[in-house]
């Protein structure tokens, strides 16, 4: 080891130390910092990528909303025509369609009209009580009907007249209706209003009026 160092050697040592120090400083400064990392990114490309992704997300959401409304209107709406709401008194059916409301209104109107017609056509008790008071409850109703038929039978006999009998394969009778001023040609089994022809003979016909038989002769 040298005890005495010349000035030239001291100068060389100082130069070496300075170089080593400068190399260390350069190495420290060459390490990238946070700012350098952010600066290395291309901001324009990042914005472009974000914009493209946002556009895709927006389009996807828009398509989803449209599909939801289409499915709701086509499939789910019919099931929600009647909403069932629970109230204090039980279950109440609400939110009916317009057609059902109109149908219910028409039914109520028809019921109201029918009740009004019944009320207008219905006769008071006094209308029926008069007949009940005047009727003899001990006299059979059948006798009254038979008497009415008998009275009408007399009129029928007076109104009809046998003009003649026409011979052939089947006998035919010519009967005059005086009130109608007509002549009817009838066979056995024919009818004149309520009068039926039961039989035709050579000189007379047998007629039936509501169960009462009578004859017309020439």
Q: What report would you give on this structure?
A:
The chain has 218 residues and is an alpha+beta fold. The chain has a domain at 151-217: SH3 type barrels (Roll), CATH 2.30.30. 54% of the residues lie in helices and 22% in strands. It has six helices and nine strands. It is rod-shaped, with a radius of gyration of 61 Å.
Helix content: 40-55%
- Sheet having the most strands: 4 strands, antiparallel
Please state roughly what percent of the residues sit in beta strands, choosing from under 5%, 5-15%, 15-25%, 25-35%, 35-45% or over 45%: 15-25%
Terminal CA distance reads: 190 Å
CATH topological fold name of the domain at 151-217: SH3 type barrels
Radius of gyration: 61 Å
Main CATH class of the domain at 151-217: Mainly Beta
Principal-axes geometry comes out as rod-shaped
Average predicted local confidence, pLDDT: 71
**Spatial sequence of strands, sheet with the most strands:** 6-7-8-9
Number of helices: 6
Q: Please state the structural category.
A: alpha+beta
Tally of DSSP β-strands:
9
Name of the CATH architecture of the domain at 151-217: Roll
Q: Write down the oligomeric state.
A: single chain
Q: What are the low-pLDDT stretches, counting only 5+ consecutive residues below 50? A: 82-95, 141-150
Q: What is the N-to-C order of secondary-structure elements (H for helix, E for strand)? A: HHHEEHHHEEEEEEE
Protein name: Type II secretion system protein GspC N-terminal domain-containing protein
Keywords: Membrane, Transmembrane, Transmembrane helix
Transmembrane segments: 57-76
């Amino acid at each position: 080891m040298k005890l005495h160092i010349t000035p030239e050697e001291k100068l060389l040592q100082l130069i070496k130390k300075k170089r080593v120090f400068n190399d260390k400083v350069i190495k420290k400064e060459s390490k990238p910092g946070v700012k350098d990392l952010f600066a290395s990114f291309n901001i324009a490309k990042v914005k472009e990528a974000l914009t493209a992704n946002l556009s895709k997300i927006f389009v996807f959401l828009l398509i989803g909303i449209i599909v939801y409304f289409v499915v709701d209107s086509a499939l789910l709406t019919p099931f929600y025509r009647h909403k069932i709401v629970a109230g204090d008194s039980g279950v109440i059916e609400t939110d009916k369609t317009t057609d059902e409301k109109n149908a219910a209104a028409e039914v109520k109107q028809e019921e109201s009209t029918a009740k009004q017609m019944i009320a207008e056509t219905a006769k008071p008790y006094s209308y029926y009580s008069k007949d009940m008071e005047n009727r003899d409850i001990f006299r059979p109703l059948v006798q009254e009907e038979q008497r009415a038929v008998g009275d009408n039978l007399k009129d029928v006999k007076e109104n009809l007249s046998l003009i003649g009998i026409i011979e052939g394969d089947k006998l035919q009778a010519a009967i005059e209706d005086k009130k109608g001023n007509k002549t009817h040609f009838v066979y056995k089994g024919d009818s004149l209003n309520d009068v039926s022809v039961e039989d035709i003979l050579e000189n007379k016909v047998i007629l039936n009026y509501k169960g009462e038989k009578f004859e017309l002769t020439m």
